[in-house]
Amino acid sequence: MKRIEVIQNILEANETVARRNQQLLNVHRVFAINIMSSPGAGKTSLIQQTLTNLKDRLNIAVIEGDVASTVDAEKVQNNAKAVIQINTRNMPESCSLMAAMLEPALKDIPLDDIDLLLIENVGNLICPSEFALGEHKRIVISSLPEGDDKPIKYPLIFIDANAVIINKMDLLPYVDFDIAAFRRAVAGLNPEAEIFELSCKTGEGIERWRSWILAQVKSNAIK
Amino acid sequence: MKRIEVIQNILEANETVARRNQQLLNVHRVFAINIMSSPGAGKTSLIQQTLTNLKDRLNIAVIEGDVASTVDAEKVQNNAKAVIQINTRNMPESCSLMAAMLEPALKDIPLDDIDLLLIENVGNLICPSEFALGEHKRIVISSLPEGDDKPIKYPLIFIDANAVIINKMDLLPYVDFDIAAFRRAVAGLNPEAEIFELSCKTGEGIERWRSWILAQVKSNAIK
Hints:
homodimer, alpha/beta, seven-stranded parallel sheet, 8 helices, 40% helix, globular
């Protein structure tokens, strides 16, 4: 099983670099969040909302992970202190960010001036759950049009999440999504996960998310 | 670059098994379609609609690929001649079906009685583009709530597609999606791809998809 061994080595090497990334972030008191979801569930929109709502309270940097293109980095440029785009297309793993991709990006961010680092992972519910990046918290976004069965079909990413966001609540009248069933499925996998219902489009529910982020950053700063 | 070599070997081994799968399908005159998309874009719904609309004209088998669960297989059971569920959770590659996962599944399907095999890949816009399964055609589904930038951000899967489906057209009044921009992006990557606009929920646009499938199966049968 040559492949299994290689994968094992890659995962272990990734853990080492992830720990190094986190130490660097801790030295500079930067709180980092790894944001994961399916393509199009609203990672970039959540980052835009977070920037709009918190830019006067926190200095925020953003790392954008995509297979290709810089469209997301362009969207968040206005309110962030620093934005780095990582394209994974020609990297050994294209379906997720890895700690070793973050390491050089962190060197390009003025960490002393930053309170919060938002890392947008590649749109994917499978690969990103395997690779720690050095983040302090892991967030998964599910959006109503995807259906309420995602925790059942992609359990790993929900098991490791600190918070789960149900996005696109504005579409509730137009899609079939059983919020209670979704919440039960998440709680069955991960009873500790905070769950937020919100709409990045209308701003509904953003206030609670904003408070949660502020509390997280604050508790990190006084550690 | 030990990993690159291993990956290369895996891809080559996959191609060999994929060719073997296709030969087996050809011997039995089974036409196979590999259906790929993000999680929740509508692969299962498209299969359900196709079964409902074609069960009196064609004998259809379904292979369901998921990381975990059998919820999709249960949904399509009624109108299919055979349904096989593959869970990739503990397989060497969990983010896509591979040809070697299909091979044993094909042994469990009465191929002589089947005209059309619909293969639902794992919900993912990245990994499935790397692994041929032995299919005759590759379909990508994009759904309106995901946004119109998916071809730009996940180009590979669109480059290799024979057809691209824009699903959830019933949500057009409620989401921001520029159909012309999406069509231009697909055409820029892959001018040959057929593009279908439809809603698996309302049935809008299904007729053209139905005709296309029938024409494909017919041309395969008379080869």
